[in-house]
């Protein structure tokens, strides 16, 4: 019955299966999951309907977390990761946004080496996505990656992309990064922020576009609320 539902001609039926997949995984246990559900889950990630792909993508982290630790890598690398790589370049904004909201959570599951080799390139693609909600979902979850690969590796890999976006010729792209900056600062901490990003925030105050200067002023107010008045007195 489940097999037929997972491949039902009606996308709404497949959507329902994707939406309830974690409940099903929990109910049947690890053996059936490994032998049967992995195949169907990867199929839902590649579904022809964007709504189904988005729903399944949103479950990736939880599905992988629920796998027994001794089989996680053996299941994820050949079955889930290839599908994730395809979703990163999906044509649908909502699919990519759903993926971006959970993909960083794969880092603790896959470990440092796999994160650096396989996941970081995908993070970079999503971080440079044209849609702000996709970028925001990546920036919002940097802390989970930082805990796995460390701040040095993070600064070497993702930070240059963030700085590049912050200096983008298109002012709306710069504006999106400014709006994300307090969240980024909160995750990375004051020391790292002062070293890598503080000067960038100051440069926005003299940007040629009024909207950027206005947003930069609001950004500084939010940074003061995060780091404190003493930080502001020392920095500015």
Describe this structure in words.
The chain is mainly α and 236 residues long. The protein has 17 helices and no strands. Helix 5 runs parallel beside helix 8 and helix 7 runs parallel beside helix 9. The chain is elongated, with a radius of gyration of 20 Å. The mean pLDDT is 90.
Helix and strand arrangement:
Blueprint: H1 2-6, H2 11-19, H3 21-28, H4 30-45, H5 50-57, H6 60-66, H7 72-88, H8 93-102, H9 107-127, H10 132-139, H11 142-157, H12 159-166, H13 171-188, H14 190-196, H15 198-204, H16 210-227, H17 229-235
Helix pairs in contact: 2-5, 3-4, 4-7, 5-8, 7-9, 8-10, 9-11, 13-16, 16-17
Summarize the structure.
With 236 residues, the protein is mainly alpha-helical. The chain is 81% helix and 0% strand.
The N- and C-terminal alpha carbons lie at a distance of: 65 Å
**What is the alpha-carbon Rg in Å?**
20 Å
The poorly predicted ranges are none
> What would the principal axes of the Cα set say about the shape?
elongated
Query: How many distinct helices?
Result: 17
The main pleated sheet reads as: none
Topology, number of strands: 0
Structural class by sheet pairing and helices: mainly alpha
**Mean of pLDDT:** 90
Beta content comes to under 5%
The topology string of helices and strands comes to HHHHHHHHHHHHHHHHH
Helix amount, in percent? Answer: over 70%
What key attributes describe this structure?
about 240 residues; 17 helices; about 80% helix; about 0% strand
């Amino acid at each position: 019955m489940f097999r037929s539902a997972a491949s039902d001609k009606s996308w709404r039926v497949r959507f329902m299966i994707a939406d309830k997949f974690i409940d099903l995984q929990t109910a049947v246990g690890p053996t059936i999951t490994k032998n049967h559900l992995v195949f169907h889950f990867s199929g839902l990630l590649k579904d022809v309907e964007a709504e189904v792909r988005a729903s399944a993508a949103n479950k990736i982290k939880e599905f992988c977390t629920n796998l027994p630790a001794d089989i996680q890598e053996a299941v994820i690398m050949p079955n889930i990761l290839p599908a994730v790589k395809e979703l990163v370049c999906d044509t649908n904004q909502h699919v990519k946004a759903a993926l971006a909201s959970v993909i960083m959570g794969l880092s603790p599951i896959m470990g440092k080496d796999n994160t650096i080799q396989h996941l970081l390139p995908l993070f970079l693609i999503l971080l440079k996505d044209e849609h702000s909600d996709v970028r925001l979902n990546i920036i919002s979850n940097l802390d989970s990656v930082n805990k796995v690969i460390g701040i040095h590796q993070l600064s070497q890999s993702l930070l240059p992309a963030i700085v590049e976006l912050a200096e983008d010729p298109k002012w709306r792209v710069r504006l999106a990064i400014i709006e994300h900056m307090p969240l980024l600062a909160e995750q990375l901490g004051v020391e790292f922020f002062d070293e890598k990003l503080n000067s960038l925030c100051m440069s926005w105050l003299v940007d040629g576009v009024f909207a950027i200067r206005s947003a930069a002023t609001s950004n500084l107010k939010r940074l003061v609320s995060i780091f404190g008045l003493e930080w502001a007195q020392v920095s500015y």
